[in-house]
Amino acid sequence: FPDLLVPSNDGSLHGTQWSTPQHIKNLRSIGLAGSSGHTTGRRARFAFGAFGPYTAALVILFAKEMYVLKLGANAERLSLITAVWSMTFPLMYPVAGALMDREPSLLAFARCGRRAPWFLIHILPLALIVAVVYLPGLLWTPGSGSLMLDVWLAVNLTLSAWCVTVLLNAWESARAEIYPFKDERVLVSGLEKIVGALAFGAAFLPQMLLW
User: Fold this and answer.
1) Among 14, 60, 161, 171, which residue carries the largest CB count within 10 Å?
2) pLDDT digits (tens, 9 = 90+) for 91-147
C-alpha cells in the first residue's frame, strides 16, 4: 500500500525506512495486519450465523419424506416439485446478490451495513416457514394423495428457498469482507463445517418428534 505510507522520522524516502501511519495501523477491521483482530470465539459466533439457514433448508427438505411416508402425499408429484425447486434454487442466488448490491440500497438502515438488514428481514419469515411446514397432520388430517399437501410443500419450498438464498448470500458476502485473508478465512470455513454438522443433526429433531 504505497499510498498509505509516510516517510520515517529521519525523512528518508528509502522503502525500508518508510512506516505506516498510526491511524492506518489502528484499522484492524480491514485486515491490514493480516487479521480481523477477532478472537476465536467471535469467529465461531460469526460462523454460527449460518446455523439457521442450514437447519431450515434441511428441515424443509426432510419434510418431503414425512409427507410421503406418514401423510400419504403423492410421491410422483412431490418428486416433480422438488426437481423443479432444485433447478430454480441456484437461479435465486445471483438475483439476491444483485438486489443486495444495488445502489441506492433497497434496504438502508442506519449503522446496519449493507448485509445485516437483508439478513434480519429474512430470518424471521424463514423461522415461520419452518414452524408451519409440519402443520398438515398436526392441525388437520389430509386425505391420502391430497393435492393440498403438494401445494403446501411447494409454497413452503419456494419461500424458504428465497429466504435461505438471501441469508447465505449475505453471510458469505460478509465473510469475504470481514475475513479477507486466507489463513483466517480457512479457520472460519472450518468452523462453518462444524456448524453445518450441528445443523444436520438439529434438522432431524422434527422428524424424531413427529414420526
Assistant:
1) 60
2) 898 898 888 887 777 776 666 677 888 888 899 999 999 888 888 867 667 777 778
34-42: long-range pairs with CB below 8 Å, 24+: 34/181, 34/183, 34/184, 35/181, 35/184, 36/178, 36/179, 36/184, 38/178, 38/184, 40/187
Distances 129 to 124, 154, 203 between C-alpha atoms, Å:
9, 12, 14
Q: Would you say 175 and 45 are in contact if contact means Cβ atoms under 8 Å apart?
A: no
Enter the pTM of the model. Answer: 0.75
> Given the C-alpha cell 441506492, which residue does it identify?
104
Its CATH architecture, for the domain 37-210, is Up-down Bundle (1.20)
Domain ranges of the chain: 37-210
Longest dimension (CA), the chain: 86
Q: Which residues contact 180 (CB under 8 A, 6 or more apart)?
A: 30, 31
